[in-house]
Amino acid sequence: MTPQKINDYCFEFPPSGDMRVPARIIATESMLNDILSDNAPQQAMNVACLPGIVNYSWAMPDIHWGYGFPIGGVAAFDMDNGVISPGGVGYDINCGVRLLKTPFSVQDIKPRLKSLTDELFKSIPSGLGSTGSVKLSGREQKNLLKQGARWCVEQGYGVPQDLDKIEENGEMAGAEPQLVSDRALKRGRDQVGTLGSGNHFVEVGAVQTLFDENAAKVLGLEKDQVTVLIHTGSRGFGHQVCDDAIKVMLQAAQKYGIKLPDRQLCCAPIQSAEGRNYLSAMACAVNFAFANRQLITSRVRKAFEQALGIAGSEIRVVYEVAHNIAKIETHQVNGVSMKLCVHRKGATRAFGPQHPEIPADYREIGQPVLIPGDMGRYSYVLTGTSQAMQDTFGSACHGAGRVMSRTKAKKAARGRDITRELADRGIYLRSTGRSTVAEEMPDAYKDVSQVVEAVAGAGIANKVAKLKPLSVIKG
Q: For the segment 261-279, what is each residue's pLDDT rounded down to a tens digit?
């Protein structure tokens, strides 16, 4: 099926079959062929069949196939009649990105880039099954799951000012650790403060281009300034919370007579016991991820101290966004203020100027939106817009989006030295395994500049700065 063109950056599948609302894709025309060659648009149409969905099932330009919802999917559900679906959040609950700024320029750091990156690699446990040096007792772990990044700050892993620059202030309300399985608790006990594998990374970069100098000034970003991006999530803990929930939701969908176009969209009414319990368990995983990135930030600061001899307090948080999450938010729908459950799966919040949930420092420009690219090209800093609030429930995309599966990428990487190719581009890579490097090679991803062109063209985010990678740590 070919979607109808709404404008140069929006394409729509009108309701058909059991669809309750249209499915819309934010993209440029040149991106459509690749997007339509994947099963993800059908997944966006499947989401449009779920009870209580409001306005549209949205797909961002980094859309690709996922579990249940497409990665890059956004959907909002009426609190009274709508559903909550673990497939609309994902396995890596609150996978997200944090941007740090430093007092250094590229010229300051280049002679010491290798030693700094080696120190970061030594300090931050990475790779599949990696465990951290912070060992939690049962009580401490449950406190962390309720308090998120605040728990870390209170233990000395950061400063109170960090919390102001994290979505939800790093502490999602409603977390109930008693609703989390013993297996999830066990899997997460030794993983806080670890990077993991796959597409997760720590990247030392620099501000290459400024598109909006006023917004950049508000964020404290300057040309050639060295930055650090941290991308990771809730590790094995969040994966287990999702896995546990899917088993419950498959039964719940039958219990409540919910017709599913795809079993992976298993769900329950938001107001049901199953729905409320999932939201509370999910909040625990959200807080685990906030704490995880806070602890990694503490390690980044120490690595800068060790390698460059500066106070870690000079490394400051610009902002942190969540990617895989469901949140209760208030939005205007056809001129009426409504409380909705907004699912963002591989998508990020992009609230416009003056929204009360944005840090006071940033309200004049809108919420920072962080869109990392692949490890060989560039990443972007944008800000949310009033248009996003009207159209996409204050949402934008979360990254470049894959164009190759991991298996296909590994085949394409045979006979190539990806680490050397990156070095030839001036990017120093440290990783725990060749397999991850092959899966994550730049060719496996869309060019993020095209993705950013689509969200900026659609008016749901404004470009502020482009960051160029200098060195990368992968699991």
A: 999 999 999 999 999 999 9
